[in-house]
Amino acid sequence: MNRKIIAATNNKGKLAELKKILSSHSFAVLSLAEAGITAVPDETGTTFEENARIKAREIFALAKQTYAGGSPAVIADDSGLEVDFLGGEPGVYSANYDIPWLLEKLGNTPYEKRGARFVCCICYIDESGNEQFFHGTCEGTIGFESKGENGFGYDPVFEIREGTTMAMLTDDEKNALSHRGNALRKFAEFI
């Protein structure tokens, strides 16, 4: 029987990744809507870990009150893009910006100075309220233009090797390399 976990996100791309990766480990991932939760926690932290904790704790508290199936576990992540040339920006504020902003900020910066990484921090709260954190990264370089049709967010400009962006990969290829995939594999090993 699959163990139920509520995913503390309304991001369809993140939810799809969570469901795909965790389903192979016998987890049934519920969206907020499937759990009867309409609240969206504000991300007021200054680190990925703080934001993941804020979301997980709020959804866990709401689930205890509203979810008909008892108190399921909750998984929340905060993730973003850190660009070396920009001093780690946009970081925890990645969702507030977009590809045009990023490409404008980098301008004609040479390729070798466009190093970047996707970062993910997952906060897992089990049915008893115990918290655990899992981290994952994916190193790459910011390209000069968008390429590819898959993925979401900054995937079309995040090159895992020169000329190949995350958005050019299949879902399985991306999940094998991604920051979220790396963090989720650590979570699956723990659980």
Plain-language structure description:
- The protein is an alpha/beta fold and 191 residues long.
- It is 30% helix and 26% strand.
- It contains 5 helices and 7 strands.
- It has a 7-stranded mixed sheet with strand order 2-1-3-4-5-6-7.
- Strand 1, helix 1 and strand 2 form a beta-alpha-beta unit.
- Helix 1 crosses helix 5 and helix 4 crosses helix 5.
- The longest helix is centred in the N-terminal third of the chain and has 19 residues.
- The two termini are 15 Å apart.
- The mean pLDDT is 90.
Quick description:
The protein has 191 residues and is of the alpha/beta class. It is built from 5 helices and 7 strands; from the N terminus they run βαβαβαββββαα.
Features:
seven-stranded mixed sheet, alpha/beta, 5 helices, 191 residues
Set down the secondary structure blueprint.
Elements: E1 3-7, H1 12-23, E2 27-30, H2 48-66, E3 73-83, H3 99-106, E4 115-125, E5 131-142, E6 158-161, E7 164-165, H4 171-177, H5 179-190
Parallel strand pairs: 1-2, 1-3
Antiparallel strand pairs: 3-4, 4-5, 5-6, 6-7
Helix pairs in contact: 1-5, 4-5
